[in-house]
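Hey team,

Filing this mostly as a record. A colleague (T.K.) asked me to run one chain through the structure pipeline before their review meeting, and I want the input and output archived in the tracker in case anyone asks later how it was produced. No errors, nothing strange. Just documentation.

Input sequence:
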Amino acid sequence: MLVGYSSSSEDDGEAGGEAEGAKNQSETTCRKCQEEDDGLPTRKKPKTEEEGPKSRLPLPGCVLAMFPDEVDSQTEDSSLHGGRIRSFKHERGNWASYVYFPYNPEEEFGELLDGILSAAGARGVVLTAQDEFHLSLSQTVVLRHHWIQPFTQSLKSSLTGCKRFVCSAGRLRVYSNAEKTRTFLGMEVSTGHAQLLDLIRTVDRTMTEFRLETFYKDPSFHVSLAWCVGDQTVQMEECMQELQSLVDDHEDRPFVLRLDCSELRCRTGNKTFRFPLES
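Output structure:
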């Protein structure tokens, strides 16, 4: 028997027969599968591309509270902070930090400050009292979150042997920040200057260790009383004599601000570290 090449029509017929047979076999198999699957739960349909992504559930408040350093864009809105502008932009994981002595004012101080703000306002200088009062021993620097523990530990070690003392202030002075975006009314320290300089050298050693900016070369130690937006140095200087007279003649005697320098503090973000000095 001679073996020849099949024609296209013959190939189609053979292919068609095989296809038809396969079709019949497939239908039989499907019916059998369907019979076997009767009584079983329907399988889930595979996810198709047309199905939209599920919306993410909001995080509970207790979880958000675990990350207080992560703030939204509203923190950069100066209108939400009395017009104040950040000296540096907030970035995730960066914590604004500074070293200081707290001042807890007595009632007499509050009465004097109210009089000073009223007199300045009458001269066209609208001042806002500080939320809290302190004497700075460092510039405001930026600490990465993982630096906080070693930084505060270094500061604690450096302060070993430092003695507590008392300083006083009574002379008003005008200050402004480096960017000239805020002007401050402060009360300059008159006694305790030497002890404060010793502490500055101690704090600066830690700053240098972490390659952070040290304190000013010729510092004017002071407690800031109030502030206003912008550079209003000239306007405030014009009414300084009147404001100082309120301090000098307060209740028939000069007012003296006394600051108990017994516990140095470091604030970084929303955390405050305390370093009691030796007696």
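Quick notes for T.K.: Helices lie at 8-37, 61-64, 107-122, 148-158, 193-209, 233-238, 240-248. The radius of gyration is 37 Å.
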